[in-house]
Amino acid sequence: MPTNSKVEKDPKIQTRKPLSANWLKKICLEEGAADMGVIEIDRPALDAEREGIRHVFPRARTVISLVQTMNRENIQSPARYVANDEFHKTIEDITQIARRIVKRLNRHKVRGVVPTVGFPMDMDRWGTLKIWDVSHKLMAEEAGMGRMGKNRNVIHPKFGNFILLESILIDHEMDVYDRPLDYNPCVTCNLCVSACPVGAIHSNWEFDFSACYNHNYREFMGGFQDWTEQLVAAKNVTQYRKKVRDSETMSIWQSLSFGANYKAAYCMAVCPAGEDVMPLYQEDKKKYVNNIVKPLMDRPEPVYVRAGTTAEKVAAKNPHKEIRHIQTPFRPTSLTGFINGIKIAFNREKAEGLNLRIHFKFTGAEKRLLTVALAERKISVEEGHQGIADLKVEADTGTWLKIAGREISSFWPVLTRKLKISGNPMRLMQFQNCIEN
Question: Which residue intervals define the domain 4Fe-4S ferredoxin-type in the entry (predicted)?
Fold first, then answer.
């Protein structure tokens, strides 16, 4: 069997006649896709994604971006189990469409791989790197299938954001490739801003990932970790039930049995963008809000937030929502995981009025220089030592990751010189206080 390098240099592969994009589109639509586009993997916009694509399929030359529509009335329903079932059924649908396309291409000696729409992902990377290889939203944008809206969903010019995405990696080049849209279908109506129960979406296009992750994805990943740790930590059934309600336990059971459920996805439900959706909104905006937006905002339900966050403040303003305080474990296992984690777990409320620049020097298994800066309720991370530091921290990487994950305190590492602090130690505590854990 040839190695990857030999495959790349194989003249039979390099000189194959490009496939017709029109022919490929005809196949995709015949098999049930609502729309599709193609991207060459050498495109500069895919520089950060190419390694992941090659990991999945080393011979990949082209990415096919597939779009499948959902029934938007299901997604808009206040009965959220109906919306979740629509997500699950459409995931099954687009997966089968992609598999049928690949089988048809196989008959023409075109080989390919269908990555997962969502899960399963590579959980061996949890806390270290991103757990997926192919970013379907980026592929869709590059293939002209839409643009990311204020709600962080890809909005198709015709179908709006009531779509799900899949990608297919194939070993042939195309005669013509698609380009990104030169406009954004998002109409900046801010209905998603109003509907989000945790205020994750901001009118200025900023997005609070942590707020969205903690609530909407409560029964995925970190939320599931929190639940299992509460289960294990409880001394008996009575103590467990003081923390977790029967309805929450049954909701976890349902997600385990029939697929993880989203707690909201209201940002998608209320979005009026897209040629198929916009007429209903433009015809009577007040009626649209009363029939679609208001029932979701007025829906009695628990809202999962971290204490002392903006999400908690937003949820507290809605009398129909009941605040449920949670913990989301943050235990990075690499410096890359630490960097990504502090960006996600950063608490803007606790960073109010804080201006701090820290130079980190990591030694041991992973050697790295980093600059972490906090200013204007924002956090940034840069490679190397940039600017004048308010605090300098030198640490053994393994030790620091345990401190960051709250597995150990900094007391003994300081005494054993595995953690060295140059400057006021209280400044380090201020930084740690801004990271939710």
Answer: 177-206
